[in-house]
Design brief:
Elements (H helix, E strand, L loop, with lengths): L2 H16 L16 H31 L1
Helix pairs in contact: 1-2
Length: about 70
């Protein structure tokens, strides 16, 4: 994913995280993180998912070559 896609996805993810009635907002045991810390954690998670997707795409391409 390029920088623009990353920023767009991260912004959408942060909107979901910050919703009071959303999955994260409904948790009673929410960690006491600042907004900047939550954005950093979400960004790391987003990058991990992107790398995993790339890995799966490479494996699928290798399987299709067989």
């Amino acid at each position: 994913m390029n920088r623009t896609e990353y920023e767009t996805m991260l912004d959408a993810l942060m909107q979901n995280i910050e919703k009071e009635n959303g999955n994260f907002g409904a948790c009673d045991e929410r960690p006491a993180l600042s907004p900047a810390q939550r954005r950093t954690v979400a960004g790391i998670a987003l990058m991990a998912v992107d790398q995993y997707h790339q890995h799966l795409s490479k494996r699928l391409a290798a399987l299709e070559e067989l």
